Amino acid sequence: MTTSKHLYHLTHYEYDRAVQLSPHVVRLKPSKDCRTPITNYHLNIQPIPQSLHWLTDFYGNDVAQFDLGSKTESLIVEVHFSAAIDQYQAHENWPNPDLDIASWHHWHASAFNLSPYLGVENVTPRLGEFLNQWQSQRAVYLEDLQEINQGVYKAIRYVVREEAGVQTPEQTLTEGSGSCRDSAWLLIHVLRHQGIAARFVSGYLLEDTQANEHQEMPRTNDLHAWCEVHIPEMGWVGLDPTSGQFTGAHHIPVAYAPEPMGAAPIFGYLDECQATLQHTIKLT
Hints:
Layout: E1 2-19, E2 24-26, E3 38-46, E4 51-56, E5 62-67, E6 72-86, H1 101-110, H2 125-132, H3 142-155, E7 157-158, H4 169-175, E8 177-178, H5 180-193, E9 198-205, E10 224-231, E11 235-240, E12 245-246, E13 251-257, E14 266-267, E15 275-283
Parallel strand pairs: 7-8
Antiparallel strand pairs: 1-6, 1-15, 2-5, 2-14, 3-6, 4-5, 9-10, 9-13, 10-11, 11-12
Helix pairs in contact: 2-4, 3-5, 4-5
């Protein structure tokens, strides 16, 4: 059964004076790799840019680069699109269950194909303790990936965190809580320390979520974040540590990158000022 969903996303910045913005990039277009059909996509920017160009960045993301050309006291970015959500089986054709993923990734990283997705931060005390849970069982097979995903889900309580940026894995483990982007970044590091290539994904979760016995769940009026691992014979496969499950039809990716900054939805520089932000996502 297919369900039609329409998403409206507003990002509205107000500045305390007229400021000059550098050329900005917007990473809010559903990926061409998204398995859920997307129609009626529209991007609106106000003030109307002096120039706007669509391009593909290093990681295959569709990026809108715009330049206002003159000073402004506000910036509005609006996104609309429709999604035909079909409850597909997330991964129908698993590869050989005995496939040693870590060894495969090691060989391809040596050939520089996956090396950007294997970089890790130094092992700090809390991260080291967490990694020790998996040392006796390296994440080389498919069931190991889900076990680690569940491990992060159970260890980290989801919270709405309005502050910009992403916590380090050490901060997330010390607090025992984090936003979806914090849990995703922690999972990425755990997997990379196991020799598994993993990347950060930003996108939308087109699903009305509710609290469960473990924790509150992400709100549909926020952007969502999760992790993807590269599995031979399948490509990139999503793991969502906020739910402890594989990603599905309701996950709509808009940007992939080795690290969170590379998937920032709106990025650019501006004159020093005081700014306020109104952020709204409506799902109908």
